[in-house]
Amino acid sequence: MRSLKLYGEQDIRFEEADKPYIENADDVIIKVKAVGICGSDLSRYRKLGPYVEGTIFGHEFSGEVIETGSEVTNVKVGDRVAGCPAFCCGKCASCKKGELARCEKLHVMGAYHPGAYAEFAKLPAENVVPIPDNVDFDTAAMVEPSAVVVHGLYHTNLHPGSEVAVMGCGNIGLLAVQWAKIFGAKTVYAIDIDDDKLAVAKEVGADVLINSKERPAHEQLMELTDGRGVDVAIESAGSPITSAQVFALPKKGGQVVFMGIPYADITIERFYFEKIVRNELIVLGSWNAISGPFPGKEWSTTVHYMSTGQLNVQPIISHRLQLRQGPETFHKIINRNGAFGKVLFYPELG
Question: Can you tell me where the transmembrane regions are (predicted)?
Answer without folding.
Answer: none
